[in-house]
Amino acid sequence: MKRTFSIAMAFVGLTVGAGFATGQEVIQYFISFGLNGIWGAVLAGIVMTLAGSVILQVGSYFLADEHRMVFRNVAHPIVSRFLDVSVTITLFAVGFVMLAGAGSNLEQQFGLPSWAGALLMTGVVLAAGMLDVEKVSQVIGALTPLIIVAVVFAFVYTMINMPSDTSHLNEIAMAEESPVSPWIVSALNYNGLALLLGVSMSLVIGGNYSSPKEAGLGGLMGGVLYTAMLIIAAITLYLNIETVQGSDVPMLAMMDDISPVLGVIMAIIIFFMIFNTAIGMFYALGKRLTASTNKSFRPVFVVVTLIGYGISFVGFDTLMTYVYPVIGYIGLVMIVVMIAWWVRSRARIFAESKRRDRIHELAHAREHEEEEYTDEDRRELRKLVGESNIEDKELHQTITDEVKSEIADSELEE
Questions:
Q1: Which domain range does residue 387 map to?
Q2: pLDDT tens, residue by residue, 29-84
Q3: What share of the chain in percent tops pLDDT 70?
Q4: Dihedral class, residue 75 (left if φ above 0, else alpha if ψ from -120 to 50, else beta)
Q5: Are both 205 and 322 inside the same structural domain?
Q6: Are residues 161 and 310 located together in one domain of the fold?
Q7: How much helix, strand and coil, in percent to the nearest 5, is found in the chain?
Q8: Which helix (H) or strand (E) holds 156?
Q9: Same domain for 170 and 108
Q10: Do residues 259 and 398 share a domain?
Q11: Domain containing 317 — which CATH number?
Q12: What is the value of pTM for the model shown?
């Protein structure tokens, strides 16, 4: 359960990201349609839960360490290449936009020069990128509760202080611009955007866990939590639309209206959420660029992140306003491809999950001094590893590392 929860929090941290934390995407994709936008949030949450569970489970099934090898296995070569190029370009584009956004966030709230805020974010991303993927996912997951607490607090405060007359809010909300319409298409486009941004790192996180069942449950749990947060955020911003209309950072404007101190706290939380998105983009990009070469990950990661910082000085806000809907539609193609493959292959995935759970049990018995491990167990372990879709050496090493880590953690707790 601990590992499942860790997967869930990392997934939420990736998919919430900076746009959700600022409230800007929630306003544009949902609240701009008035009350219908709330139903859009419900629809988006359902799709996110289903797709997130599938993506993480598929990542685990292939023990993915980058997205290209997964796309090659689940899609036609032409579709696979298209998705690979789209995701790779998106990772870099959104990565440097996040660095620029960090600069703008700190400039707006604290008066820091935008280049200094972007440089600070670049330094934090570079430091986190030196960790292995499990540590990176733990960092992302550890920061996620901050935005959860902030959104829930804003919702409770709004409910307690809700105005008696809300009949005029729908008209104000619908005055906001949306990049996509009608509300159903907007909700689905938002799904495509969020998941195309998060698919590469989500596959890597899923691939860090040998059990597809565990990864799928983590995605399911994360999706349910994400749905609750999205609906709460949509209702909260709808009821505060008079306060936040026209704001570049609606969540910050709303918190600032409650208390300047809360505004400062929210600015810091938004900075952390921008970090979650930025590290997810650049880490996954580094993994992709070094997947088929002999180059080591860290130097490439450092170079692409520094290039991203250099490009962050150029204004891309208007460009991204037009690019985001396109990314969303490409993301919908990716969702359909992944879910269609999962439906066709679910029997194999479930069988492999059961096989790996048994391999895990046998490996635990072998590594734990107090458990019995017989010659029959050894033969069964060798047979099961040979039947897996993953190469023997890779699967053996992955599960052995997991077991040793679990044993070490249990000994520390004792």
A1: 353-413
A2: 999 999 999 999 999 999 999 999 999 999 999 999 888 889 999 999 999 999 98
A3: 95
A4: beta
A5: yes
A6: yes
A7: 85, 0, 15
A8: helix 133-160
A9: yes
A10: no
A11: 1.20.1740.10
A12: 0.85
